[in-house]
Amino acid sequence: MKTIEPNKASKPTFKLGRTELILFVVIMIAAVALRILWVLKIPNTPVYDFQTYHEIAVNIATGYGHSFQGEAIAFQGMGYPTALGLFYKLIGETSVLWGKAFNVILSTLTLFLAYPIFRKLTKSWKLSIAAYALTAFLPNYIAYVSVIGAEVFMAFLFAAVIYLQLATFNKWVRWPLLGIFIGLAALTKPVFLVYPVVAAAVHYLREKNLKETLAFVLTTALLMAVTVAPWTYRNYQKYDAFIPVSYNSGYVLYLNNNANNVNGGWMPLKDAAASPELRAQIDEILQHGKRSEKLAYELDPLLKAEGKGWILAHPLEFAKLGILRVQTTFFNGAWDIGSWAMNGLYPGVPQWTIQLERDLKAFRAVSDALLNSMNGLAFAFVVLAAIPVVRSLFRREEKLPVGMILPTVNVSYFILIYFVFEGQARYNFPVLFLLAVCAVLAVSFIWRGVSSWRCQN
């Protein structure tokens, strides 16, 4: 059986050549400048979940703890509002502008992590620079520094998680550190509670050493659990229930999987299909509209059971909604930029002109085309790479390049999560840098194929 050699560039550390270093620095400076310029020039205000994040962060900074409307809350992951609240407390300011400054810092750190990741996933510095430029100037990654949401923070944590899987320093330092960062990611997005299994799959496919992979997954899972445990204990004290991170998983599962859902996304709880008995229970818990859904932790087990029951009873309808969720997340353009990062620009404001409207539509068209094209190429890469990756699971002697394994497994993980739970355009944010490198690799393979065909003729 022929063994496919792993990517040689993924093992040793690399040194940047002069041209490579210059391009890296120029791209970094330009990217950070664009982020700062966006914050200063493009108006927006926090709404919906973003306003909730800001309120919780302000409460943390001002001594009221992790609370919302005067009550303890664990509706969403605590990672981002806690980090933002600590940042507010550190600088002594709680304005939205400082929240945006925090995002600029996080986005810059993500860029610093992204380039070594790309260098370890590819053999060519030119491909790495191309993926880096695409990531640095991606409209989403620029615009979301203005959004008081978990996206920029989560992208940083995920980049750190990927970097630590590819780094080569002492594993008994690196593995626990990876477990801690996975724990921080889980405290931000609870779906990362299962991520040690994803990381273990990547590790095994790279090393084909079952004993070492077992040690790896146990170490990372243990340190993740240690990182999450204090918050879990806090939740037990507050709610007298086992809530590892948040109590919205049942809420999300049910709203996105019920007989009245036709688009695979979020819908108002009052519009979701419910029997008279279930509706009465919901109304009682919400005190007939007097209590916020974000504070009603008792809803979670009730709605989780209802959502699971509907999925099991309607597998085909669930699959249809899952497909819609994936499409909404990865192939619905960049409409979310206008809604969340530019919502201070709308018809009726003093600065609104025909020229501005035309410019905004042109920006949306370019952003849509770029994002959909990138994601289409990335999906093609992942789908085709999934065949040898799955096959390699059953062939102990076959090792694949890490540039094939890591993006394929991780992107597939995100696709699966969104297939089951909820699809929104902004949910693709943490994985966009991996989609960028997949797209660049896909273009490279296509170009080599075309060049080879041309030379033969």
Automatic annotation (TrEMBL):
Q: What is its main location?
A: membrane
Q: Which GO terms describe its biological process?
A: lipopolysaccharide biosynthetic process
User: Which controlled-vocabulary keywords does the entry list?
Assistant: Cell membrane, Glycosyltransferase, Membrane, Transferase, Transmembrane, Transmembrane helix
User: Which cellular compartments is it found in?
Assistant: Cell membrane
Q: How does it sit in the membrane?
A: Multi-pass membrane protein
Q: Which residues form the signal peptide?
A: none
Question: What's any one GO cellular component for it?
Answer: plasma membrane
- The domain of life is Bacteria
The transmembrane residues are 21-40, 97-118, 130-163, 175-202, 214-233, 369-390, 402-421, 427-447
Q: Glycosyltransferase RgtA/B/C/D-like domain: which residues?
A: 84-231
Q: Name one GO molecular function term.
A: pentosyltransferase activity
This protein's name: Glycosyltransferase RgtA/B/C/D-like domain-containing protein
